[in-house]
Amino acid sequence: MKKSALLVVALAIVVHAPSLRYPFLLDDGVQIFKNPAVTAGAPLGAYFFDRETTSSKPDYNRVSWRPLRTLAFRALVLAGGVRRLPIALANLALYAMAALLVLALLRRIVPDEAAAAWATALWVVLPVHVEPVAYASALGDQLSLVLELGAIVVAFGARWPRAVASTLLAAAAMLAKESAVTEPVLLALVALACDAATARRLGRRAAVHALVAVGYVALRTHVVGSLGGQEAATLASGLREAPWLLVHYLWISVAPLGHAAVYRVSRPGVVELLLAIIGYAGALALAWRWRRAVAVGLAWFAVALAPVLHLVAWRPDPSDRFALVSTVGLAIAVAAAAAPLSRRRALVFAALVVVYAAASVIEARPWQSDALLWRYAVDRQPNAPLARANLAAVFLDEGRVDEAAAQLEALHALGYTRSDLELKRAYVLARLGRGDEAARAVALALRLDADNGAAHALAGQLALAAGDAATAAREHAAARRLAPAHASTGLLGYELLRADDERVDYLRALQALSFDDSDGAIRAARACLQRAPARVQCQAVLGRALTLQGAPEGRALLERCVAALPEGPDRQQCREAEWSTRR
Question: DSSP assignment, residue 417?
Answer without folding.
Answer: -
